[in-house]
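look at this fold:
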Amino acid sequence: MKKFALFLFAIALTANLLAQKEIDVKISGMIFNSPSDTLYVSQFYGNYYKDYQKIVADKKGNFAFVGKLPTEDYFVLRVGNNNIQMILRNNSDIKIYGDGNKIKEFCNIIGSDESKAMNEFAILSERWAVKSDSAINALKADPSKESEINNYMQKEYTNFQSELQSFISNNANSPALIMAVPQINPDADFKSYESLILQVYNSFKGSPTAEAYYNNYKQLKKKLEDGQLLATGKLAPDFEEFMTDRKTKLKLSSLRGNVVLIDFWASWCGPCRKENPNVVKTYEKYKKDGFTIMSVSLDQDKEKWIAAIKQDNLTWPNHVSDLGGWSSKVSRLYEVNSVPFTVLIDKEGRIIRVNLRGEALEKELEKIFGH
């Protein structure tokens, strides 16, 4: 819960700048035993609330608000020091019933399954956070119990991860998934983070908060891709190297206009030699369509390199090597740490995919050439 709020605060300024379209909503219900007769429809930005509507309940706790809010988005209904999560769209009609003293345990939301799912997961997240904080404090108090505490917390972590995955699968393509985003570390699991963000964004495009999350994701993705040498869409690093005659040099960029497979291999590499028949088959099928191969060998022995080219029937002319083995300049340029390794680039020299072999390579070329 705390983590979620801080993340919202980080993107709040962006969200507030986005275009807004007023919505009509109805929020009503009864909160008995409430610590206050005043409720607020707000947004929470980590260290402050932005209040949009004040609702005064009667003595029994009945309350109702019918009116306008600035935009479709994520809101909270403030009940004392507790928040009830709400997803509000145009013409939302939400009824909320609960015990003000135990609102987390006793709260029923009618008219918004998305909001109900968010609040249920918020409770689970808060319980996990409390356990984590308690474990840290217990460890500080008595370091001798480190093993015992770690074993306990590992079980609790496994349980929470199971609950997290259930929440994600049960709320696919729902804006409620925004509650799961703070539980995913994009540095450790960018694919899961990306999946959540895209589901939230595509299911709630009217929401400035969802839009801001999406923009934040795009910036993070670009930063990650900029740091990846062989990211899809980037220009493949150009290089020039000696061919088999040891006199002529071939430059990668001279093959522009062709779809090129840069194939790192070596005569001494068993998996490479086993893969070569597939590479030959693919070359023969697509060479007339503008597909070629540039083979970069990590050999050190010229004679063995040339012999392997002949034995494996690697008939394309683009074979290069500096005979430097693992110290090859091109392999270091491409950060190759195992062979076979391939980089497929388009006619403009931009990277399509890396490490495609066999059937995966042929399927990619089928998409490119249409057969």
In short: The chain is about 40% helix and 25% strand. The longest strand covers residues 23-32.
